[in-house]
Amino acid sequence: MSTLPPLAPPQAEKPAAGQGPKKPAGLKALPYALLLPASLVLILVLGYPFGRLFVLSMQKFGLKQQFGAPPDWIGLDNYTGIFQDSQFWVVLARTIGFCAAAVVLTMVLGMLVALLTRRVGRVLRMALIVSLLFAWAMPPLSATVVWQWLFDTRYGLVNWLLSQFGGDFHGHSWLSNPWSFFGVALIIVVWMGIPFVAFTLYAGLTQVPGEVLEAAELDGAGAAQRFRYVILPFLRPVILILTALSVLWDLRVFTQFYVLQKAGGIARDTNVLGVYAYRLAFGENKFDVGAAVAVVMLLITLLFTVFYLRQITRQEEL
């Protein structure tokens, strides 16, 4: 008597390539629903002021507007005017040069401070971290006033110390000369930017695998080689983000320059874009031209942000 072979259990149909289990429609829309409140806040807080600034830059303000007359619509004439003004290009080049110097010094010194924090003992590490926190927590205006007094012509500590070492710095004015003015401004901006960079890089250094560093040391790699071939590749994403943030912060620097100019700096020779737009709008009552400079400054910042984000995305895809 022949026996029938057992029936094979029915096999479930395999989904086609690229097709996964379907998600409910509500689950797909959940991320967008969660982003909606934050997006609305950004549109209200940032979108409306930018729109108002853009409209202001397309108008013309004159004497009759001071008596209540509505401003005239002139389109892109304000932008044409600032692009034809040589002073604008001088200020733009000055801003970019200062930003580049500040970012390089901030990143290099921040990395050195982070490495020092990693190497010192526990007590010195805590003292260093507390000092950085105090420097970081100080408001820009207060920090600038302190440094202004340090470089004061008559009572400044810097002039006194340099005079003690044989230099003739009695009554020396650091702010009246554009080059020394930018040197003082650079010291203030870098000093305020180092703590954030150092803290972030120090956190990144703690994530570098110790066994990888030990293996490189056993293979004969020196300290410089371990830093270049082991530490830097691990910190590259963090360095990219910190560099982008530093550029954005230093491009729109305002408080330090404005306070130092009030303390004795020559405004025309030391303006950067932020102060230049402010002085045009409120110092010369050219609200339309100042708004146009501010829009150009914002567009430069946005273009750099988009470019840098693309570079970061390409690094992640490699």
Automatic annotation (TrEMBL):
Topology of the protein relative to the lipid bilayer: Multi-pass membrane protein
GO biological process, alphabetically ordered: transmembrane transport
Species of the source: Kineosporia babensis
Main location: membrane
Transmembrane segments: 29-50, 88-116, 128-150, 179-205, 226-249, 289-309
Family, as annotated: Belongs to the binding-protein-dependent transport system permease family.
Protein localization: Cell membrane
GO cellular component, one term: plasma membrane
One Pfam family linked to the record: BPD_transp_1
Region (Disordered): 1-22
Name of this chain's protein: Sugar ABC transporter permease
Domain ABC transmembrane type-1, residue spans: 92-308
Superkingdom, natural source: Bacteria
Keywords: Cell membrane, Membrane, Transmembrane, Transmembrane helix, Transport
